[in-house]
């Protein structure tokens, strides 16, 4: 049976901002020192927002050598309140250090099919610089990863010729989603999951206790690679 080994960093209280920022900063600095560039994948949500904001204020990172891509996005206007692009503008880019031209994101002004093709092309161009150093993730209350929702189509989410997928959901805000696939996420040298509260950790532990259920728990495909860290709060 496949095991789901991972590192766990549990922070007392509610705030994981300092722990999450420090974890990312150390690895970004190391990547730039070792290979001259750092590439990170960023998921949306309220939990990582404060981490991204503090990261964007770092004095240790040479942001001219740091690139980021969006793990998933909603097919809505960039200034919509539910847009992950807006989230990153209000957090990571807010301090003016991270260069907006170094943020690779979907063009949601295009029709959805064109958005997917355009973002796939951008991702492949970015990866000419190298594979991601870090991919930041979350785990939805229903077990979804990025915008790959259970029951997950594992074959479709694991195609080399389709780095970017169009998915849909009726459970959460915004029906049409843009998401990178398993291959992109698993290219990361490390993956980190940010979570807040005992309820989220309970869902995580439920998933860890049910290995080899990829359709139900798509995140298992990532954790199986053995490069995953969970950073979570107790409250």
From TrEMBL:
Keywords: Hydrolase. SUPFAM superfamilies: NagB/RpiA/CoA transferase-like. GO terms for biological process: carbohydrate metabolic process; pentose-phosphate shunt. Gene3D superfamilies: 3.40.50.1360. Its EC number is 3.1.1.31. GO terms for molecular function: 6-phosphogluconolactonase activity. This is 6-phosphogluconolactonase. It catalyses: 6-phospho-D-glucono-1,5-lactone + H2O = 6-phospho-D-gluconate + H(+). Residues 15-227 form the Glucosamine/galactosamine-6-phosphate isomerase domain. It is an enzyme of class 3 (hydrolase). Pathway: Carbohydrate degradation; pentose phosphate pathway; D-ribulose 5-phosphate from D-glucose 6-phosphate (oxidative stage): step 2/3. It holds the Pfam family Glucosamine_iso. Hydrolysis of 6-phosphogluconolactone to 6-phosphogluconate. CDD domains: 6PGL. Belongs to the glucosamine/galactosamine-6-phosphate isomerase family. 6-phosphogluconolactonase subfamily. NCBIfam families: pgl.
């Amino acid at each position: 049976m496949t095991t789901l080994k991972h590192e766990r960093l549990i922070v007392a209280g509610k705030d994981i901002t300092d722990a999450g920022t420090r974890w990312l900063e150390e690895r970004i600095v190391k990547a730039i020192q070792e290979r001259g560039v750092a590439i990170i994948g960023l998921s949306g949500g309220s939990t990582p927002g404060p981490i991204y904001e503090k990261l964007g204020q770092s004095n240790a990172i040479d942001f001219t050598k740091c690139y980021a891509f969006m793990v998933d996005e909603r097919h809505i206007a960039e200034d919509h309140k539910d847009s992950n692009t807006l989230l990153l503008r209000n957090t990571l880019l807010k301090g003016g250090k991270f260069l907006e031209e170094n943020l690779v994101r979907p063009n949601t002004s295009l029709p959805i099919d064109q958005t997917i093709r355009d973002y796939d092309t951008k991702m492949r161009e970015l990866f000419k610089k190298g594979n991601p150093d870090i991919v930041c993730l979350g785990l939805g209350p229903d077990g979804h990863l990025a915008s790959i929702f259970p029951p997950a189509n594992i074959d479709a989410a694991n195609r080399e010729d389709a780095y970017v997928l169009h998915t849909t959901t009726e459970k959460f805000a915004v029906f049409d989603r843009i998401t990178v696939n398993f291959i992109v996420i698993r290219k990361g040298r490390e993956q980190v999951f940010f979570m807040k509260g005992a309820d989220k950790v309970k869902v995580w532990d439920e998933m860890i206790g049910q290995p080899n259920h990829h359709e139900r728990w798509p995140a298992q495909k990532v954790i199986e690679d053995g490069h995953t860290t969970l950073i979570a709060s107790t409250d």
